[in-house]
Amino acid sequence: MSATTTEPRRGHSLKRRLLASMAAGFMLLLLLISVLLWNYARAASNRTYDLLLAGAALSVLERVSYNSDGPTVDLPQSAMDILALAADDRITYRVFSPGYGEITGTPDLPVPDDLRPSAEPVFYDAKLDEGFRFILQGRQLTSASGREWVFVQIGQTLGARKAQRDTLFLYGITGLGGVSLIGLAFVWLAIRTSLAPLGAIADTLLARRPRDLSPIEGDPPQEISDLFRAINSFIAQLGRSRALTESFIADVAHQTRTSLSALQGQLALAVDAEDPERMRGRLGKAEQQAERTVHLTNQLLANAMVIHRSDDARLEPVDLRKLVRDTLAELLRERRLRAATISLEETGLPGGTAPIRGDAISIREALRNLIDNAVRHGGPDNTIVIELGGDDSAIRLTVSDAGPGIAPADRGLATERFTSINRKTAGSGLGLAIVRSVAEGHGARLELGSSALGGLRATIAFPRLLALLLTCLTVVAGPRGAAAEELTIWASTDRVAMAPLISAFEARTPGLTVAYREFQTVDLHRALLDVAPGEAPDLAISSAMDLQVDLVNRGLARRLRIPEPLQPPGWAQWRSELFGFTFEPAAILFNRDLLSRDELPTSHRDLSSFIRDRENELRGKIGGYDLRRSGIGYLFATQDTIQSVQAQRLTEVLGRANMRSYCCTADMVEATGRGELAMALNVIGSYALNLSVAHDNIGVHFLDDYNLVMSRSAFVPKTAGNPEVAEAFVTFLLSPQGQQLIDRDTVLIPLAPPMEDLSPAAQLLARTTGSFLPIRLGPGLLTFLDEIKRAEFLRSWDATREQQYGP
């Protein structure tokens, strides 16, 4: 190459060439279209789900009526079914009248500031514990005092509409992305043309010989002139680095050649000597020269190693105190150090540690060289003092000896390679050079001075690493202790049924204990609503699916990360917060001594006729749940009214037959076994199937039209103290191991039974020809939890029970 060009002339603008190849408003147009598309997607999703809110509000308004006590409402199931089309969204509602106040639902929901009575729907957003979209719509009723306004207010969380908004936007932006790619193809053509000078630079560099480190010549555009200068600067640095390397190699070659030549000369003189004494003297000098050669070689290798590690090593937290002690323990085993007196003094080390960031191998090599220098220059009665001290900013490692020391004027020269100040004790001239390289690689300072012993005092001042950081790293990296953990479970399931699952999970989680507390379903619901801060359980399990949905709908549950392969069917989960883990159909339990299977009804219609035709025979011998005390009983009863037009007729027939009410399944099973009951309705199938296997006089019957199926469900409260372990327990319940354990060792029925080795109850269920209808977790279950609707349902149920006292 010709003359060097360090300041290339400024030519045409690469930026202008690129901008001229692109449409001036391309990016602005793309951004504008994206904003418009986002607004369109948001408006479209709002319109879609606002229709759900409007439909639900209209269906509720249609059921608003006026009686002697004022406005009332019979909340329709269809309203909740409409809202359930957004399957994972929570809902809230209320019905109120300005003249009569709250009628039903959640009181004091937010309303617009400018609320005016109107039959037109009003949509607006409001923030509760999370974002909600509300509809507010009114209707006028005729009362004794005139026309009265009644308002329906329904709110729904924004999850479904946000998902639809994001989907619409994604599809639209994908199309724009395709158009953008076509535009980028044209831009690429322009870039290739504009960046041709860079290709020329690359070709120039590729064509160079390895030893050609001359700067690049050229006439680059303005935009890459800095790149030209940077490349030329790097080439210059590379040249200086190569010059230093070549100089170092030359020095090494010279030193090694000189040392080996001296060794060869001594050996040659020894060969020529005829006198044994003179030969012995020459061999002794050859041995000393060999030692110096070995020492020089070791120092050269150490110097190369230190330089390499100072460039590439990753500094890590190191306790310098421990490192110094370990290094001294190794050195004191060497024979050459036994003649010297070596002592270690430690001052100013809080906590007994000296934390720094460093490379242990390099620091150990620096300390070895300082001690080696002290031994070499200290004389026959040498004393070496190693001091380790520090303050808030630095940790200082000092080595002092009793030798001749180094004059202040020579201390700068002493750290240069192959420089020996004292020719009588000259070594390789690399010892202090290695120490200086180690200090520079650690951001430390090397200070040379006079020691109190009269010799050299060499100090390396390392930046201090906070002791707290070293302690934290030790805690994190150290072995974890088996700290005791406790998982608190509140459940409406008998502990005996859950005991095998709890024991298996405790065995899989060393150090864990499970605290299990039993409730009735209704009591559990109340306890979770009224729990004090800091006293919430880690996990709540209940068979009352509607009460569980109510708690989750109130925002009390946290989202769980259950692996996709373990997730239950759609009907047995909601919002990734509530998960069912059993499959338990409602069954009819009967006493074989009082009834035969052949005469049992096969449908709900036949069941009503069966009881009516045998009313005298079955009077007082039919059992069912107390709907006020049993959440699962209330769930089955309300779901029957949705699924069958025969539900009301069956309720009336049971009232005339003096049906007995029980709080729980176990009491009905015992009464059936003793013959006090001929049959019990809507009994939890898992208990019924297992007991029928153990008791010859108890049978289980399923109807052919439908049999409701509930699933015990679990959720982790937001205020749980140990949510990670609770999530692991839910995952275990849904895993193949957990489901197999449910089938094999408990009275429950798994949601996903194993393919083989079924329990007797699961085998009986598999042979049953009944039609099983799972109850879906979701907002639809909130319908009969409405205060007015629940009160009316229970009032009707009470009325049928009172028939037994009538004429």
TrEMBL record:
Ranges for domain Histidine kinase: 251-466
EC number: 2.7.13.3
Catalysed reactions listed for this entry: ATP + protein L-histidine = ADP + protein N-phospho-L-histidine
CDD domains in UniProt: HATPase, HisKA
Xref: InterPro entries: 2CSK_N, HAMP_dom, HATPase_C_sf, HATPase_dom, His_kinase_dom, HisK_dim/P_dom, HisK_dim/P_sf, Sig_transdc_His_kin-like_C
Chain ranges of the HAMP domain: 192-243
Keyword Transcription regulation set for record: no
Compartments, record wording: Membrane
Cellular component per GO, a single term: plasma membrane
Major localization class: membrane
Source species, domain of life: Bacteria
UniProt xrefs under SMART domains: HATPase_c, HisKA
The entry's keywords: Kinase, Membrane, Phosphoprotein, Transferase, Transmembrane, Transmembrane helix, Two-component regulatory system
A Pfam match: HATPase_c
GO molecular function: phosphorelay sensor kinase activity
Residue stretches spanning the membrane: 18-38, 168-191
PANTHER family: SENSOR HISTIDINE KINASE YKOH, SENSOR PROTEIN QSEC
Annotated protein name in UniProt: histidine kinase
Protein's organism: Salipiger bermudensis (strain DSM 26914 / JCM 13377 / KCTC 12554 / HTCC2601) (Pelagibaca bermudensis)
